[in-house]
Amino acid sequence: MKLKASELRTTLPKIEDIKKIKKNEIYIILDNVLDTYNVGAIFRLADAVAAKKVILCGQTETPPNTISRTSSINTTEWVQWEYVADVKSAISNLKNQVSNLKIIAVEQNSKSIPYDKADYNFPIALVVGNETTGVSKEVLDIVDQIVELPMWGVNVSLNVMVSLGIVLYEVMKKTLTNPQIKL
Is there a domain that residue 181 lies in? Predict the structure, then answer.
């Protein structure tokens, strides 16, 4: 289905319609993601999987921002988000608020496992990092697990939003087919 830009950027949904959407126990943490197009696209991903919250950290620019608002097609207006200056504090705060939360970084690392081999269960928080330097080492040291996507070509990495999208849909696939998880 091909949509025009005007069809994508419809009027904002009504608050009562937003409240009817059952949110999944997914939290997305951005560790110094600098490209506002990526930030906006991550809001679209959060909306697509009905994530509970996006947490913007460090130098990640916060809404309202013209570029992220455009690339998010206005999802910054209804996807719940917050800004926390320090990523480690954001993780600590979230762990104190959400019982049994599993924190998974999406990053290439000697300790990582293939993204499709991870055991994804709700509640879950996915951490993605800066487009150049990735998820910071101090964050990698405190997460529960690190997953990465295989690279078969010449390039050694994928765009942060693309990587997050692939992992988020793997999370949804595994949770939707797990009879013990209630959505």
Answer: no
